[in-house]
Amino acid sequence: MLRLFCLISLISGLWASDASRIVTIAGNGTTGYNGDGGAAVNASLNDPVDTVFDAAGNMYIAEAANHVIRKVSPTGAISTLAGTGVPGFSGDGGPATSAMLWYPSAIAIDGSGNVYESEVNNHRVRKINLATGIITTVAGNGTAGFFGDGGPATSASLFNPLGVAADSDGNLFISDAGNRRIRRVDAATGIISTYAGGGSSMDEGTAATSASVNVPYGLALDAGGNLFYVDQMQERVRRIDAVTQTVTTVAGNLVQGFSGDGGPATAAMLYTPFDVALDAAGNVYIADAGNNRIRRVDSAGVITTVAGPGEYPGPGDGGPATSAFLNSPAGVSFDAVGHLYIADELNQRIRQITFFAPTSTSLTSNRNPANAGQQITYTASIAPAQATGSVEFRDGGSSLGTVTLVNGSASFSVAAGGAGVHSMTAFYSGDSQYQSSTSAVLSQVVTLNVTTTSVLASPNPSLQGQPVTVTATVSPAFATGTVQFIAAGSPVGSATLSGGTAQLVFTPGAAGAFINANYSGDAAFAPSSGTTTAFVLRTTTTSLSASPNPATFGQTVNLIGTVSATGATGNVQITDGSAIIGSTTVSGGSFAFATSTLAAGVHSLKAAYLGDSLYASSTSAAISETINKAAAAVTLSSGLNPSAVGGAVKFTAYVSPSAATGSVSFYDGSTLLGAGTLTAGSASFTTSSLAKGTHSIKAVYGGNTNVNGASSAVLSQTVKQK
């Protein structure tokens, strides 16, 4: 890589969107001869016509009107390699800087590091040994004419040599313009011969030495040793095959002018072409001086303009080469890394063109469609994969980020934006070799995340006029936005989501209302709704009375009550203390319940209305109901009367009411005979111990919690002697 052009390489990315970029490497645009020891771009040149590079990256310039060869080092410093600036001939065998040159028209270099320059008015080709700085003549005796083929080149006559080239073996090729020939000097023997020209044929495929050559100018060799030459007066560039030694036309149709870009080069018109060069791929570049253009013939034979013509007076530096103003470009050459150099003769400059290879950029998404907020990875692939630099990822006109290319690929991850279709593109920036490119638009579909909304009311049910807190819960919990609450079809307010919930306190006006919670959605989450029923109940009061009060055990007690709302429906529970003793229904605002199971004692009775869908529950005040014990009646019978002494007698006592429980004691006078347990209202006792005589038998019931005690009438039991 040439250090001379580091700055240019750094800037190249700025213009990678174009196919090329042009800058000035040497010359300040002013005709003159100065600047040695300083920066080449500040030096004055005078008719620079050709350039060449050595292996170390030094550039050599043939300055025809200054009669010197200048050198530009890799650091950009300019100096004089050969010539004094005074036209003439002198100095062979001595330092080149002391020698006189006369209109050097072309320059070449061989593989050994020798520079060759052709001098038009000295009719010579001279060599400068870069190692020693010594200059010598290698062809031409200084006398204009045609002489010497088959003998030493230094003894031969040349006539206005305009071009020179050296092949890999050191053989020289000379455009002997005045003699209408191309001459060759053998590197091994120094013998000169005619390589092309001297004939009259203009046919394609004719032998080179039979061909008509009319003012040959610039020369170039390709990797296969094929020689390309400019035939200026024929307005053509032709090629001599290294193997067959036949001539074919590369570009030009023998007509002076400008035409043919985009078509076959052999059908195009050129206008006073000066020079020719080839890039590493074998494309041919022509200094089409009269058209102020550099034109390229590709491997398919198609010709295009790659630099110029531009517009006067601006040179166009820093921009695309096709926008640059060229003024009689006389020479073209390439450096080791593929930059094209133009000897822009009448602009007094050496210009450099950097060509950027085309690229293509494609863009993919790993998730399409995606939910808003979901992570998406975009991958840009650049072809060819050797391209370096960076890729900018864009959403419409907004830049999302820039990523460095690795092996032709760059990936960028980002959360999906708002819902909709996003026009995603990837812009490759280009580098010092590759042109920028933009991908086709990728339509990234982003959908809203699905949400669910639920709503609760508390308290529920509530009483009419009581504030109610409604809580909406939106899932996922990181949704944002607001929730609007609607009760019975009318908005009652809204609240902002926080942590997935939103709350509102309001006082319902209806006795029963549907509550809707409508989540508005946000940039990432879809709207959703939830519904609940908030039961708002009218208040009620319940009253209770009992009749009779007091009552006797076993007697039916009628409990009568009212519920203040005549429209209330549902059930009423009757409680005795904490025990439910029964239930009834409300009808027309009243209810009734009858019971005969209340135990003796004082009872705290309440009526609890259980409520319905419109009316709230309520409980009456407690009422005291007194239940007195029931009176008992006892009758007594004997199973055998009279009875015999020693005989068994069974006495049976009958006790009412039937709720009486417990035991009955049997007496003979005041003497207790025994007792029996009441079963189904009766109790029995059997004895065989009664003595002869009349006995006063009586049955005594002791009572229980609900029935008072009682005694039977006296039964006279007669006992006889057997």
In short:
By secondary structure, the protein is mainly beta.
Question: Can you put this structure into words, describing what you see?
Answer:
- By secondary structure, this protein is mainly beta.
- The chain is built from one helix and 60 strands.
- The strands form 14 sheets. Strands 27, 29, 30, 32, 33 and 34 form a six-stranded mixed beta sheet that branches. Strands 44, 46, 47, 49, 50 and 51 form a six-stranded mixed beta sheet that branches.
- The radius of gyration is 63 Å and the shape is rod-shaped.
- The N and C termini lie far apart (160 Å).
List the topology elements.
Layout: H1 6-11, E1 20-26, E2 48-53, E3 59-63, E4 68-72, E5 78-82, E6 104-109, E7 114-119, E8 124-129, E9 135-139, E10 161-166, E11 172-176, E12 181-185, E13 192-197, E14 206-207, E15 216-221, E16 227-231, E17 236-240, E18 246-251, E19 273-278, E20 284-288, E21 293-297, E22 303-307, E23 329-334, E24 340-344, E25 349-355, E26 360-365, E27 370-371, E28 375-383, E29 390-395, E30 398-404, E31 409-415, E32 420-428, E33 437-438, E34 442-447, E35 452-458, E36 462-463, E37 468-475, E38 482-487, E39 490-496, E40 501-506, E41 512-519, E42 528-537, E43 542-547, E44 551-552, E45 557-563, E46 571-576, E47 579-585, E48 590-595, E49 601-609, E50 618-619, E51 623-628, E52 633-638, E53 643-644, E54 649-656, E55 663-668, E56 671-677, E57 682-687, E58 693-701, E59 710-711, E60 715-720
Parallel strand pairs: 27-34, 36-42, 44-51, 53-60
Antiparallel strand pairs: 1-25, 2-3, 3-4, 4-5, 6-7, 7-8, 8-9, 10-11, 11-12, 12-13, 14-18, 15-16, 16-17, 17-18, 19-20, 20-21, 21-22, 23-24, 24-25, 26-28, 28-31, 29-30, 29-32, 32-33, 32-34, 35-37, 37-40, 38-39, 38-41, 41-42, 43-45, 45-48, 46-47, 46-49, 49-50, 49-51, 52-54, 54-57, 55-56, 55-58, ...
